[in-house]
């Protein structure tokens, strides 16, 4: 458990899965939250659940690819809570699930807009604020798909490899200013995103997991909190597998 009382965290894709679990974990550790998602209804439910449990959370609905939304979200953190200390840039979609020659330009652009541009927009505006404060910790969500290739998901894997390149370069830009930027690479995690995968393909994927099961969103949230905490003060620019051994096998 961590003590983030007096600190402020921003989470994108906070209405579901790992984003929602991380928002709850940050709130339980005392952080005030700015929560962003394009699913306004579910986002407000998560925000209300956190505030009714005694936490502090404000919500902002929109598309993470929109740079104005990123600027506005950081602005809300400052207006409501006076600072921004931590961020988890997590919103993502699976996109086209087919062999690469069958992918379309529209499908590629759609997954790239969320998974890569949508990390870039938030990372940029979080860093502008954290530079003013001279401190901060940011975790970007990549995937096992950022470390290895798998058939039938080339666009997704391209964006997740991109998140790692973005993370490493940005980390070096701000490391000397007391700001840490890292990425996590979750493996197969039990969230609604898995609903987009064919049941047979999911069964085979699960059978191929070294730990013999999917991860739980809370098991990823705890790693995000650790990376944002002073316990990870030397961790800079890494792409950390959180995958029960998948990329090791
Ligand atoms: P999820 O579908 O449960 O949650 C994703 C959230 O992102 C949703 O609430 C959705 O509304 C939001 N979102 C999607 N596009 C958005 C946009 N343009 N703007 C704002 N919000 C948007 O999925 P999850 O599994 O919790 O995924 C979270 C992250 O983890 C994603 O980046 C995903 O690629 C990554 N990931 C997931 C797995 C897995 O097995 N579930 C594995 C590796 C990486």
TrEMBL record:
It comes from Sphingomonas chungangi. The keyword Membrane does not apply. InterPro entries: KR_dom, NAD(P)-bd_dom_sf, SDR_fam. Keywords: NAD, Oxidoreductase. It holds the Pfam family adh_short_C2. SUPFAM superfamilies: NAD(P)-binding Rossmann-fold domains. Signal peptide: none annotated. It comes from the Bacteria. The keyword Oxidoreductase applies. This is SDR family oxidoreductase. Belongs to the short-chain dehydrogenases/reductases (SDR) family.
């Amino acid at each position: 458990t961590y003590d983030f009382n007096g600190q402020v965290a921003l989470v994108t894709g906070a209405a579901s899965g790992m984003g929602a679990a991380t928002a709850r974990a940050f709130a339980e550790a005392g952080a005030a939250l700015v929560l962003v998602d394009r699913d306004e209804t579910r986002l407000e439910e998560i925000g209300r659940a956190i505030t009714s449990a005694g936490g502090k959370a404000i919500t902002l609905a929109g598309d993470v690819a929109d740079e104005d939304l990123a600027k506005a979200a950081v602005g809300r953190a400052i207006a409501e809570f006076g600072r921004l200390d931590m961020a988890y840039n997590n919103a993502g979609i699976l996109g086209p699930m087919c062999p690469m020659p069958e992918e379309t330009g529209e499908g590629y652009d759609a997954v790239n807009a969320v998974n890569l541009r949508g990390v870039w927009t938030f990372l940029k505006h979080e860093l502008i604020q954290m530079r003013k404060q001279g401190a901060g910790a940011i975790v970007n969500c990549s995937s096992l798909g950022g470390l290895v290739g798998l058939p039938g998901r080339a666009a997704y894997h391209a964006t997740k490899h991109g998140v790692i390149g973005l993370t490493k370069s940005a980390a070096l830009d701000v490391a000397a200013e007391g700001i840490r930027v890292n990425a996590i690479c979750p493996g197969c995690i039990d969230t609604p995103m898995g609903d987009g995968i064919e049941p047979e393909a999911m069964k085979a994927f699960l059978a191929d997991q070294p730990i013999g099961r999917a991860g739980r969103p809370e098991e990823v949230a705890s790693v995000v909190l650790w990376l944002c905490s002073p316990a990870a003060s030397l961790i800079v620019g890494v792409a950390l597998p959180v995958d029960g051994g998948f990329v090791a096998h």
